[in-house]
Write a structure and sequence with these properties.
It is a single chain. This protein is α/β, with parallel strands linked by helices and 224 residues long. The protein has a domain of 148 residues: 2-Layer Sandwich (Double Stranded RNA Binding Domain). It is 31% helix and 24% strand. The protein contains four helices and five strands; from the N terminus they run αβαββββαα. α2 links the parallel β1 and β2. It is elongated.
Length: 224
């Protein structure tokens, strides 16, 4: 009587690992050829940067962390003269307004607005990135029976909007056109605004009517 032979070759874990590694390498090469870049490190074209955004504000601290995380070789300096690039905050406005009222005149929905205006120059004042305005708007339902909870929710939403704004700023700084402009800065116009200029204060507007003290949060102080 003949003994039956296995139809499949014996399992070889070493060969399987090699095959898996080959598949991963091939996939990476295909993605690279398609221009795919994993989110993470995006080196900036300069290694030192100065900003007039207050370091002791939540927004300023997040900007610094995000830039260093995206471009580890870039470091912040405290003096404009020591920096290859200068990130200048021109305005940072945060506001809250009534969006809709019910039949009794009570607020049903608020609109949260965030606006950040900035520019980027090199050490000689050449404008690498002209004044750029980024805006963010969120709508938030309101219930006056849970005032404290809604006030906390507004604060949380503003924090999320600020973090999203930080991400947008970093992506803008890491864009190819900024790198190209920095490399050809000598051909660009120069800006005469002092690098350490204090950002313009928010415009004076009437605050939205709310059941609590003014919900407006000073953007330069960051979210508390």
């Amino acid at each position: 009587m003949h003994s039956s032979k296995p139809l499949l070759p014996p399992f070889n874990p070493v060969s399987l690992r090699r095959l898996g590694g080959l598949v991963c390498v091939t996939l990476c090469l295909v993605l690279a050829a398609c221009g795919f870049k994993m989110k993470g490190v995006s080196p900036l074209p300069f290694t030192t940067i100065y900003t007039n955004i207050a370091e002791n504000s939540a927004f300023g601290a997040n900007i610094r962390r995000a830039i260093i995380a995206s471009s580890p070789q870039t470091r912040f300096v405290s003096e404009p003269a020591e920096a290859q690039a200068r990130l200048i905050e021109l305005a940072n406005n945060q506001s809250l307004r009534e969006l809709s009222l019910d039949a009794q005149g009570r607020v049903e929905e608020y609109e949260l607005n965030l606006e950040f205006i900035f520019q980027l120059t090199d050490a000689k004042g050449h404008v690498i990135l002209p004044p750029t305005t980024l805006r963010s708007t969120r709508e938030l339902p309101y219930d006056d029976s849970v005032v404290q909870a809604k006030q906390g929710e507004i604060t949380t939403v503003f924090q999320q909007m600020q973090q999203s704004m930080v991400d947008r700023v970093v992506r803008r700084l890491a864009s190819p056109d900024v790198a190209e402009a920095f490399e050809n800065a000598q051909s660009l116009a120069a800006d005469d605004t002092p690098a350490d200029a204090t950002p313009l204060p928010p415009p004076q507007t009437s605050p939205a009517r709310t059941p609590w003290a003014s919900p407006h949060v000073d953007p330069r102080a960051g979210m508390r």
